[in-house]
């Protein structure tokens, strides 16, 4: 077995291990792992109590990564995230020392990110984009792998600061966390009550995760598949579609390719397929398409628009 | 076999099948489209007269076939197409990706090829490339074929009309070309030395021919063609007569000034020669000119009236050669020549005329009226070969021992005929000539618009009934 295949097997094992702690939510786990492997950040949208924190905690444990959680509130300041210079007095005198904030971790859970002020949000978003924070005149590099998982509550919008489109674009995926089915809910309850459940094991290190990312970037993609990615993104800019106000950015095309490679890797393949593209297009595009007033008033969702685009392109591809 | 070779072989096989299927599909589509257009054309020709419907239908079908072939050649299936097709059988783009990265040897590319080859080996037996038949397309093709054939072989009044119109137009075209040729010949005459009146007449001839060209162009029905042809015949006749007259006048002038400088063009031809040439040329294209030409040639015979008798005058050998090969009326003009024309032609020449008219050869060789002392002639009159029914008495005293004519028992000739005096029967004029004169006048009247409108056809019908 080659190094690549071995890594594929280990990643698959990690996914299974995470599944032991998280009942159901297979698609969410797969999406989060995909984002992790492709170096993207994830915005989770769902009701509280669906296991988001547990999911991140488990991932950090299985991958042997440091994990910090930040609960975003309106009074949260940027320094509370990035860290701040504090004065230290000792025998040699007074000096400033940089006290690292919670952002200095491999995995950061930004809970209810939309409750903080835009200034604070932007502090985190800069870290997400640049993988470093600047305090005073000094830039501090964040440790790799760095992964942000932010959550949003779709219901309570009062007193929130919705993320601007430009900042939403920094998230590779927007994953919708749905309510579990009855069986899954039973499993969740059982898991909470059980005392003999074996905790998830650590199967991979941060270093190995970075190696895996390298391998993922080497996954091959054929021209027709790449064309499909471009067609999808271009289709979101169709001016004739009255439901789309603004289409996806070029970053969306990059994100689809990266994510599709990661998905193919996780499925034990060495090439990207049309199915991979179709599968990752939803979480990549849904927060990048801005709906028009007509769409909102007609109750059209982003996912429905993406489905329409996929159907059109599949039909055109079939006709060829 | 290496994985790379195996993948290439699978792609090649698929490409071959795909190319054949695409070729058949496109050719069938092209043919169907061509046949649809052909059926439409044939269908239209059932209602609207259109003579070239068959030709157009064949062209449409051929264009459809050619279009199908060209399209399939231009849209040749590539290896990538074949690879994508193979991938559509659940191979998740392994084959196309392996094909595109066949030259790479990194770990991922090698693993990809191995994966693609293994998956292909597993799936290949179940992969069936559909190369037809495409039932819907074939049915459509057959329907169009039947439709086109049915429409092509159904006879309708519109089709008959189209055929008739085509024939009429074809004939009109031929006549138009003939007129144009005549116009060209007449235009050449403009170089000849003509009087002002003759030039005016010539330009009128050209104008009348231009009218005929326009009429031939506008011909749409058989009736139109008949009318235009009638007018044309009349115009030809008028032109022929005009040219003949001009020629005679030119000859007269030339004879009058035979010791003076002969009029002619720069090519050294005299006007009469030019006119004769023109009539020669026109004689090929029209009966009217041919008639006039025959008349003309007969006229030459007349010139030989005095035969070789340079100075022999009246008593010469009368061997002038008229070569009057014209028929009927025109032969008459070979009066004194070797009148080989029928009828009364060659009256006094080598009268080989036939039938009733042969009687005019009564004086046989050299017995022209003018060369009346010529030798024995053959008379077709009555028993034929009668020698010299007409005799001239060179000895008016009554000594007839030198006569060679036929005699009866009593020793007298049975038939005598006077050429003058009270016994002279008078000139025989053929009925056609009489009708011709009236006909000429009538057509001139039509041209000038003398008759009430609507009567033209009645007049034409009347005179054409004599033909």
Q: Which runs of chain B of at least 5 residues are low in confidence (pLDDT < 50)?
A: 260-264, 294-391
Number of strands of chain B: 2
| Estimated helix fraction of chain B | 55-70%
The ordered H/E elements of chain A are HHEHEHEEEHEEEHEHHHEHHEHH
Description:
The complex is a heterodimer of chains A (320) and B (467). Chain A has 320 residues and is an alpha/beta fold. Chain A has two domains: 217 residues, P-loop containing nucleotide triphosphate hydrolases (Rossmann fold); 103 residues, Helicase, Ruva Protein, domain 3 (Orthogonal Bundle). Chain A has 13 helices and eleven strands. In chain A, β3 and β4 form a beta hairpin. In chain A, α11 packs antiparallel against α13. Chain A is globular and about 75 Å long. The mean pLDDT of chain A is 87. About 22% of the residues of chain B have low confidence. Chain B is mainly α. The longest helix of chain B has 45 residues. Chain B has three domains: 152 residues, no CATH class; 237 residues, no CATH class; 33 residues, no CATH class. In chain B, α1 packs parallel to α6. At the A-B interface, α1 and α9 of A face α3, α4 and α5 of B.
